[in-house]
Amino acid sequence: MAAHLWHHLVLHRELETSMIRSPRQACIAALLAAVAFCLCGFTTTTTDPDKAKVVTTDVAHFWQAFDAAAKAPAVQRVEIYRKEYFDRASQGLKDFDQQRHVTPESLAAHVEQHRAEYIKLRPYINEVVDQKPVIQAAFRKLAALYPRIKLPVHVYFVVGQQHGAGMNSPNGIVLAADVFATPPGTPYDYTKVTPAFVPFAAVHETIHFNQAFSGGDNMTLLQAVITEGSADFVTSLVLQQPDVRQMTDRWQYGCPNEQALFARFKQHKDSTDFGPWLYNHHPAPGWPPDMGYWLGYRIAQTYYDHAADKHKALTALLNVTDFQKLLDESGYPDKAPVCAPEKPVR
């Protein structure tokens, strides 16, 4: 998004802004502007985790083109990328290229100009692809936890021009592995995430497929915070939150300031101005970005943890349309559990 993109990868501004269920939700990015992807309500889904495929062939084809181009004269390189990468494209890559306006000419020009950078990123791009079994396991766990869950029929990994972390199409979620491949030791930047974030971002976006609330131009802060925060929370039931600063900074700031944050939130919860809470990389002084994700997570966590019937609580979180009622019934913040990320269900 969690949830901008995913809000998380870095789920989020661009990833979740190209196509979504409403104009307002087109602005709901899972986590980060640079790694955000669109939530398309028309993406084909399945309830069978064995039919939710993670497709990585495009990345292998890219490296074949990349290696072949290194041995060829410059005038032949466009044709190499066309033959080895574009002509062998999965449906996800075809959708990505069309949406992002990527052509053999533009990709060859960008990659060859930045060849040293792609060489540096190569092991980390491959590490992104290595998240495939983690995503598949999370989908199976999600289906066991909530059998009615709708999963994307495909999650595609592609390599692009280091711009735009992904998108959704009718054929599934498409993730640009190069954008998630931040090497260790890179100076911290909220918009740069590591491969460890990929599974959480993919599942966060999947949760959005399953939320009944469709937003709108007049979406309130309360609605947006619970929508994004509950997507992060449900994701954390099947995946440990990644140890990345985009998330850990929120906990470090949020826990000791929880009461003050909620008091301020109450004053603005009915506003359609998300101010420092969401989708703002430069919030109020001292705040980490996107604290609204964290506050929504804590509301959902409180609601779920105090529910006797966990399946019923999960259903309520996914189908909420009366957000004030859910907030009231959660008992947050007075009944909030220990301030720590939820441990995944075993």
3D structure, described in words:
- The protein is of the alpha/beta class and 346 residues long.
- It is 45% helix and 6% strand.
- The protein contains 13 helices and six strands.
- A four-stranded mixed sheet has the order 2-4-6-5, with helices on both faces. Strands 1-3 form a two-stranded antiparallel sheet.
- It is globular.
- The two termini are 24 Å apart.
- 51% of the residues are buried.
- The model is unreliable at 1-41 (pLDDT under 50).
Largest sheet, if any?
A: 4 strands, mixed
Query: Which bin fits the share of residues in helices?
Result: 40-55%
Q: What value does the average pLDDT take?
A: 88
Overall geometry comes to globular
Name the poorly predicted regions.
1-41
Helices and strands, in N-to-C order? EEHHHHHHEEEEHHHHHHH
End-to-end distance:
24 Å
Query: In angstroms, what is the radius of gyration?
Result: 20 Å
Q: Quick one: how many beta strands?
A: 6
Number of helices: 13
Oligomer: single chain
Structural class comes to alpha/beta
Q: Give the neighbour order of strands across the main sheet.
A: 2-4-6-5
Percent of residues in β-strands = 5-15%
